[in-house]
Amino acid sequence: MVTIYLSSTYEDLKDYRQVLFEALRKVGQQVFPIEDYLWADRRPINQCRQNVELADREVRRITFRYGYVPSANHGNPHA
Fold it and tell me: To which H or E segment does residue 23 belong?
């Protein structure tokens, strides 16, 4: 069994990532998807680095969207 770290730009590729995750699991691969730690108490960057270190392979899908997009009132004292 190969362990795979699966990542992509988040919002725009959710559906694509889910299909790929299910396909990889179906053929017996262990997959670390980014959803496993996005809402965890730990800092996501720490969990991301740990998963990348543990994985044998890494699959990344990147499109035109990148970076963190905060809510309109996040950190805005005037919102």
Answer: helix 14-26
